[in-house]
Design goal:
The protein is an alpha+beta fold. It is built from four helices and 17 strands. The strands form three sheets. It has a seven-stranded antiparallel beta sheet. It has a five-stranded antiparallel beta sheet with strand order 1-7-10-9-8.
Protein backbone atom coordinates (compact mmCIF):
# COMPACT_ATOMS: atom_id res chain seq x y z
CA UNK A 1 0.00 0.00 0.00
CA UNK A 2 1.21 3.52 -0.65
CA UNK A 3 3.09 5.44 2.03
CA UNK A 4 0.95 8.49 1.22
CA UNK A 5 -2.52 7.15 0.42
CA UNK A 6 -4.79 9.36 -1.62
CA UNK A 7 -7.80 10.81 0.20
CA UNK A 8 -10.99 8.83 -0.23
CA UNK A 9 -13.52 10.27 -2.70
CA UNK A 10 -16.24 12.25 -0.93
CA UNK A 11 -19.00 11.62 -3.47
CA UNK A 12 -21.51 8.80 -3.93
CA UNK A 13 -20.86 6.20 -6.63
CA UNK A 14 -22.59 3.13 -8.00
CA UNK A 15 -21.62 -0.39 -6.95
CA UNK A 16 -23.12 -2.23 -9.94
CA UNK A 17 -21.60 -5.58 -8.97
CA UNK A 18 -23.56 -5.51 -5.70
CA UNK A 19 -27.06 -6.91 -6.23
CA UNK A 20 -30.01 -7.89 -4.10
CA UNK A 21 -32.11 -11.00 -3.53
CA UNK A 22 -35.17 -10.97 -1.27
CA UNK A 23 -36.59 -13.87 0.73
CA UNK A 24 -40.10 -12.91 1.77
CA UNK A 25 -42.95 -14.81 3.40
CA UNK A 26 -44.17 -16.52 6.53
CA UNK A 27 -41.37 -19.11 6.44
CA UNK A 28 -38.54 -16.81 5.32
CA UNK A 29 -36.68 -16.84 8.66
CA UNK A 30 -37.05 -20.59 9.16
CA UNK A 31 -35.87 -21.28 5.61
CA UNK A 32 -32.82 -19.03 5.94
CA UNK A 33 -32.02 -20.52 9.35
CA UNK A 34 -31.98 -24.02 7.85
CA UNK A 35 -30.00 -23.11 4.72
CA UNK A 36 -27.54 -20.37 5.63
CA UNK A 37 -24.44 -20.58 7.80
CA UNK A 38 -25.14 -17.83 10.35
CA UNK A 39 -27.82 -17.55 13.01
CA UNK A 40 -30.66 -15.69 11.30
CA UNK A 41 -33.16 -16.48 14.08
CA UNK A 42 -30.97 -14.65 16.61
CA UNK A 43 -30.75 -11.53 14.43
CA UNK A 44 -33.10 -8.74 15.48
CA UNK A 45 -35.39 -6.96 13.04
CA UNK A 46 -33.69 -3.88 11.61
CA UNK A 47 -30.21 -5.42 11.84
CA UNK A 48 -27.82 -7.22 9.51
CA UNK A 49 -25.04 -9.78 9.65
CA UNK A 50 -22.45 -11.38 7.40
CA UNK A 51 -23.75 -14.72 6.20
CA UNK A 52 -23.32 -17.23 3.40
CA UNK A 53 -24.50 -20.39 1.73
CA UNK A 54 -22.36 -23.52 1.68
CA UNK A 55 -22.17 -26.71 -0.30
CA UNK A 56 -22.84 -29.99 1.51
CA UNK A 57 -19.04 -30.29 1.85
CA UNK A 58 -18.86 -26.98 3.69
CA UNK A 59 -17.51 -24.81 0.83
CA UNK A 60 -18.70 -21.21 0.46
CA UNK A 61 -20.91 -20.77 -2.60
CA UNK A 62 -21.81 -17.15 -1.82
CA UNK A 63 -20.89 -14.67 0.91
CA UNK A 64 -23.20 -11.73 1.57
CA UNK A 65 -24.70 -9.28 4.02
CA UNK A 66 -28.09 -10.52 5.23
CA UNK A 67 -30.55 -7.79 6.20
CA UNK A 68 -33.48 -8.71 8.45
CA UNK A 69 -36.05 -6.02 7.75
CA UNK A 70 -38.85 -7.73 9.69
CA UNK A 71 -40.09 -11.19 10.70
CA UNK A 72 -41.06 -12.05 7.11
CA UNK A 73 -38.55 -10.08 5.02
CA UNK A 74 -34.87 -10.78 4.41
CA UNK A 75 -32.63 -9.13 1.84
CA UNK A 76 -29.35 -10.66 0.71
CA UNK A 77 -26.84 -8.04 -0.43
CA UNK A 78 -24.63 -9.96 -2.85
CA UNK A 79 -21.28 -8.35 -3.70
CA UNK A 80 -20.32 -11.06 -6.19
CA UNK A 81 -23.00 -13.73 -6.70
CA UNK A 82 -25.69 -13.37 -9.37
CA UNK A 83 -29.09 -13.15 -7.61
CA UNK A 84 -31.17 -14.95 -10.24
CA UNK A 85 -28.78 -17.89 -10.27
CA UNK A 86 -28.58 -18.06 -6.48
CA UNK A 87 -32.38 -17.88 -6.24
CA UNK A 88 -32.68 -20.82 -8.63
CA UNK A 89 -30.24 -22.86 -6.54
CA UNK A 90 -32.03 -22.05 -3.28
CA UNK A 91 -35.44 -22.70 -4.83
CA UNK A 92 -34.64 -26.42 -4.96
CA UNK A 93 -34.87 -26.51 -1.15
CA UNK A 94 -38.05 -24.49 -0.66
CA UNK A 95 -40.41 -27.52 -0.90
CA UNK A 96 -43.64 -26.56 0.94
CA UNK A 97 -42.25 -23.47 2.67
CA UNK A 98 -44.35 -20.33 2.34
CA UNK A 99 -41.90 -17.84 0.85
CA UNK A 100 -40.80 -16.16 -2.35
CA UNK A 101 -37.28 -15.68 -3.67
CA UNK A 102 -36.96 -12.65 -5.95
CA UNK A 103 -34.13 -10.40 -7.22
CA UNK A 104 -34.70 -6.71 -6.43
CA UNK A 105 -34.34 -3.92 -8.95
CA UNK A 106 -32.68 -1.37 -6.67
CA UNK A 107 -29.44 0.58 -6.84
CA UNK A 108 -26.53 -0.06 -4.47
CA UNK A 109 -24.57 3.12 -3.76
CA UNK A 110 -21.30 3.54 -1.87
CA UNK A 111 -19.45 6.47 -0.34
CA UNK A 112 -16.48 6.92 1.97
CA UNK A 113 -18.50 9.03 4.36
CA UNK A 114 -19.89 8.21 7.83
CA UNK A 115 -23.42 6.81 7.73
CA UNK A 116 -26.13 9.26 8.73
CA UNK A 117 -28.20 6.95 10.95
CA UNK A 118 -26.94 3.37 10.59
CA UNK A 119 -24.52 2.15 13.25
CA UNK A 120 -22.71 -1.18 13.35
CA UNK A 121 -25.19 -3.98 12.65
CA UNK A 122 -28.21 -1.67 12.99
CA UNK A 123 -29.45 -0.57 9.59
CA UNK A 124 -31.47 2.58 8.94
CA UNK A 125 -34.57 2.53 6.72
CA UNK A 126 -36.19 5.83 5.78
CA UNK A 127 -38.51 3.98 3.39
CA UNK A 128 -39.12 0.42 2.20
CA UNK A 129 -36.69 0.96 -0.67
CA UNK A 130 -34.22 3.39 0.95
CA UNK A 131 -31.86 1.65 3.36
CA UNK A 132 -28.49 2.66 4.80
CA UNK A 133 -25.76 0.34 6.13
CA UNK A 134 -22.63 1.09 8.12
CA UNK A 135 -19.95 -0.77 6.12
CA UNK A 136 -16.93 0.89 7.66
CA UNK A 137 -15.00 1.12 10.89
CA UNK A 138 -14.36 3.89 13.41
CA UNK A 139 -11.04 4.68 11.76
CA UNK A 140 -12.32 4.35 8.18
CA UNK A 141 -15.99 5.18 7.64
CA UNK A 142 -18.02 3.85 4.71
CA UNK A 143 -21.67 4.22 3.90
CA UNK A 144 -23.75 1.92 1.67
CA UNK A 145 -27.24 2.83 0.49
CA UNK A 146 -29.91 0.75 -1.20
CA UNK A 147 -32.37 2.93 -3.07
CA UNK A 148 -34.04 3.63 -6.40
CA UNK A 149 -32.11 6.80 -7.28
CA UNK A 150 -28.77 6.18 -8.93
CA UNK A 151 -25.33 7.81 -8.58
CA UNK A 152 -22.29 8.41 -10.78
CA UNK A 153 -20.09 5.66 -12.21
CA UNK A 154 -16.55 5.91 -10.84
CA UNK A 155 -14.25 2.99 -11.59
CA UNK A 156 -11.44 4.31 -9.36
CA UNK A 157 -13.81 4.69 -6.39
CA UNK A 158 -15.17 1.17 -6.94
CA UNK A 159 -11.65 -0.24 -6.95
CA UNK A 160 -10.92 1.61 -3.72
CA UNK A 161 -14.12 0.13 -2.24
CA UNK A 162 -13.06 -3.38 -3.25
CA UNK A 163 -9.56 -2.82 -1.86
CA UNK A 164 -11.10 -1.68 1.45
CA UNK A 165 -13.02 -4.99 1.60
CA UNK A 166 -9.86 -7.02 1.06
CA UNK A 167 -7.80 -4.95 3.50
CA UNK A 168 -10.40 -5.63 6.20
CA UNK A 169 -10.54 -9.37 5.50
CA UNK A 170 -13.84 -9.46 3.61
CA UNK A 171 -13.26 -12.07 0.88
CA UNK A 172 -14.67 -11.25 -2.53
CA UNK A 173 -15.47 -14.46 -4.38
CA UNK A 174 -15.44 -14.32 -8.17
CA UNK A 175 -17.00 -17.27 -9.97
CA UNK A 176 -13.67 -19.12 -10.14
CA UNK A 177 -13.50 -19.19 -6.32
CA UNK A 178 -17.14 -20.01 -5.48
CA UNK A 179 -17.49 -23.42 -3.86
CA UNK A 180 -13.73 -23.79 -3.27
CA UNK A 181 -13.13 -22.77 0.35
CA UNK A 182 -14.47 -23.47 3.82
CA UNK A 183 -15.45 -20.58 6.12
CA UNK A 184 -12.34 -21.21 8.22
CA UNK A 185 -10.07 -21.15 5.17
CA UNK A 186 -11.56 -17.74 4.39
CA UNK A 187 -11.01 -16.67 8.04
CA UNK A 188 -14.70 -15.75 8.30
CA UNK A 189 -14.58 -16.00 12.09
CA UNK A 190 -13.03 -12.50 11.88
CA UNK A 191 -16.37 -11.24 10.55
CA UNK A 192 -18.53 -13.44 12.83
CA UNK A 193 -20.05 -14.72 9.58
CA UNK A 194 -20.90 -18.31 10.59
CA UNK A 195 -22.32 -20.21 13.54
CA UNK A 196 -21.14 -23.48 15.04
CA UNK A 197 -23.98 -23.70 17.57
CA UNK A 198 -27.27 -22.82 15.86
CA UNK A 199 -28.06 -26.30 14.51
CA UNK A 200 -28.08 -27.97 11.13
CA UNK A 201 -27.45 -26.31 7.79
CA UNK A 202 -25.64 -27.53 4.65
CA UNK A 203 -21.97 -28.08 5.49
CA UNK A 204 -22.53 -27.48 9.22
CA UNK A 205 -20.97 -30.78 10.31
CA UNK A 206 -17.69 -30.00 8.55
CA UNK A 207 -17.63 -26.41 9.82
CA UNK A 208 -18.32 -27.49 13.41
CA UNK A 209 -15.82 -30.35 13.34
CA UNK A 210 -13.08 -28.08 12.03
CA UNK A 211 -13.91 -25.53 14.75
CA UNK A 212 -14.12 -27.84 17.74
CA UNK A 213 -11.19 -30.06 16.78
CA UNK A 214 -8.97 -27.12 15.89
CA UNK A 215 -8.23 -28.54 12.43
CA UNK A 216 -8.04 -25.28 10.46
CA UNK A 217 -4.63 -25.28 8.80
CA UNK A 218 -5.22 -22.59 6.18
CA UNK A 219 -6.48 -19.04 6.34
CA UNK A 220 -6.43 -15.65 4.67
CA UNK A 221 -3.37 -13.53 4.09
CA UNK A 222 -3.34 -9.98 2.70
CA UNK A 223 -0.55 -9.23 0.26
CA UNK A 224 0.70 -6.42 -1.94
CA UNK A 225 2.46 -6.94 -5.26
CA UNK A 226 4.09 -4.68 -7.81
CA UNK A 227 1.24 -5.19 -10.30
CA UNK A 228 -2.29 -6.62 -9.99
CA UNK A 229 -2.74 -10.39 -9.78
CA UNK A 230 -5.91 -12.16 -10.97
CA UNK A 231 -7.93 -14.55 -8.83
CA UNK A 232 -6.91 -18.20 -9.08
CA UNK A 233 -3.21 -17.31 -9.44
CA UNK A 234 -1.08 -19.89 -7.64
CA UNK A 235 1.09 -18.77 -4.72
CA UNK A 236 4.44 -20.53 -4.60
CA UNK A 237 7.52 -20.83 -2.43
CA UNK A 238 10.71 -22.02 -4.13
CA UNK A 239 8.60 -23.31 -7.02
CA UNK A 240 6.25 -25.30 -4.78
CA UNK A 241 2.55 -24.41 -4.74
CA UNK A 242 1.38 -23.41 -1.27
CA UNK A 243 -1.76 -21.35 -1.84
CA UNK A 244 -4.10 -19.46 -4.15
CA UNK A 245 -5.00 -15.82 -4.78
CA UNK A 246 -8.78 -15.69 -4.27
CA UNK A 247 -9.45 -12.00 -4.90
CA UNK A 248 -7.59 -8.85 -5.84
CA UNK A 249 -8.19 -5.11 -6.12
CA UNK A 250 -5.44 -2.97 -7.52
CA UNK A 251 -2.16 -4.22 -6.10
CA UNK A 252 -3.79 -5.84 -3.05
CA UNK A 253 -4.66 -9.53 -2.97
CA UNK A 254 -6.19 -11.98 -0.54
CA UNK A 255 -4.73 -15.47 -0.62
CA UNK A 256 -5.57 -18.73 1.13
CA UNK A 257 -2.38 -20.38 2.34
CA UNK A 258 -0.99 -22.34 5.32
CA UNK A 259 -1.38 -20.45 8.60
CA UNK A 260 2.14 -21.25 9.80
CA UNK A 261 4.04 -20.68 6.57
CA UNK A 262 6.83 -18.06 6.72
CA UNK A 263 6.38 -15.00 4.51
CA UNK A 264 9.88 -14.86 3.05
CA UNK A 265 10.16 -16.03 -0.54
CA UNK A 266 6.44 -16.16 -1.36
CA UNK A 267 5.68 -15.26 -4.97
CA UNK A 268 2.77 -15.36 -7.43
CA UNK A 269 3.14 -15.18 -11.22
CA UNK A 270 6.81 -14.41 -10.62
CA UNK A 271 6.06 -11.39 -8.42
CA UNK A 272 7.17 -11.17 -4.78
CA UNK A 273 4.27 -10.94 -2.33
CA UNK A 274 4.61 -8.59 0.63
CA UNK A 275 2.32 -9.38 3.54
CA UNK A 276 0.21 -6.60 5.00
CA UNK A 277 -1.75 -6.80 8.27
CA UNK A 278 -5.49 -7.33 8.01
CA UNK A 279 -7.47 -4.40 9.40
CA UNK A 280 -10.34 -4.85 11.86
CA UNK A 281 -13.68 -3.08 11.91
CA UNK A 282 -16.01 -5.02 9.58
CA UNK A 283 -17.18 -7.66 12.06
CA UNK A 284 -20.91 -7.42 12.72
Amino acid sequence: MHDKPQPAPDHEFRLPGHRLLSICGRDAIAFAQAQLMNDVAALADGHWQWNGWLTAKGRVVALFALLRLDAETLWLLLPDAEPTELAAQLQRYVFRSKLKLAPLDLQVIGSFQPPVLARGSALAASAADDIELDLGSEEAPRRLQIRRATAVDDAAARERWDAFDLAHGLPRLPESQAGQWTPQQLSLERLRAFSVSKGCYPGQEIVARTHFLGQAKRGLGLFESATPLPAATEVTDDGRGIGTIIASAGNLSLAVLPLEHPDAGIVAAGLPLHRRPLADGLAR
